[in-house]
Specification:
The protein has one domain (3-173): Four Helix Bundle (Hemerythrin (Met), subunit A), CATH 1.20.120. Helix content is 78%, strand content 0%. The protein is built from nine helices and no strands. The chain has helices spanning 3-26, 31-53, 57-63, 68-77, 83-101, 109-116, 121-129, 135-159, 161-173. It is globular and about 50 Å long. It starts with a helix and ends with a helix. The model is unreliable at 170-176 (pLDDT under 50).
Length: 176
């Protein structure tokens, strides 16, 4: 492998590490604030996708005053993120709005199910793992699953599709 490929692999690894450090910071907040923090992390990723895909996406983000919902619709139109993630983010946004604007609202497993259900079997496995009664871990693992999918998409945009696929394959097989 050439020095350029090793350097590029390092940059990708550092990129992914930084993304997950941001995610871990969101987990340091109180329970009801965690959902708001996850929402902010996901909104930042949507903005970065818009900036990378549109020729002058920076102008849209800086001056467009777009809501999370509008950013999500725009990113969905790029056909970069699969529908289950889009649906999960749409429900996460609704739940976030509910807890942000109603001081009596709380996150429960029942209302969080709307976020997780679009993720199908992966979400079912998360709920089984915690026997449906440990909300914090269900929210954490589900948001981690969403975050992982989004980070892989933004990494593909920033570093090139082929490069990410090869790196993921190398990591999963243990080869270099």
């Amino acid at each position: 492998m050439s020095d350029n490929n090793i350097s590029s692999d390092k940059k990708i690894e550092e990129f992914i590490k930084r993304e997950f450090e941001d995610f871990k910071k969101a987990m340091a907040s109180k329970d009801h604030e965690k959902l708001l923090q996850f929402h902010l992390v996901f909104e930042n990723i949507l903005e970065r996708i818009i900036v990378k895909v549109l020729k002058r996406g920076d102008r849209l983000i800086d001056k467009g005053n777009l809501s999370f919902s509008q950013k999500l619709i725009l990113v969905h139109s790029f056909d970069i993120i699969s529908d289950p993630y889009i649906q999960a983010l749409r429900h996460l946004n609704s739940l976030r709005n509910k807890i942000s604007h109603d001081k009596e609202a709380i996150v429960t497993l029942d209302n969080f199910d709307l976020v997780g259900r679009p993720l199908g079997k992966a979400y079912i496995n998360i709920k089984r793992k915690y026997k449906n009664d440990y909300l914090f871990k269900v929210v954490w693992d589900t948001c981690f699953l969403i975050h992982k999918g989004l980070v892989l998409k933004i990494a593909k945009i920033e570093f090139g599709n082929d490069k990410i696929e090869l790196l993921i394959k190398d990591k999963s097989t243990g080869s270099k």
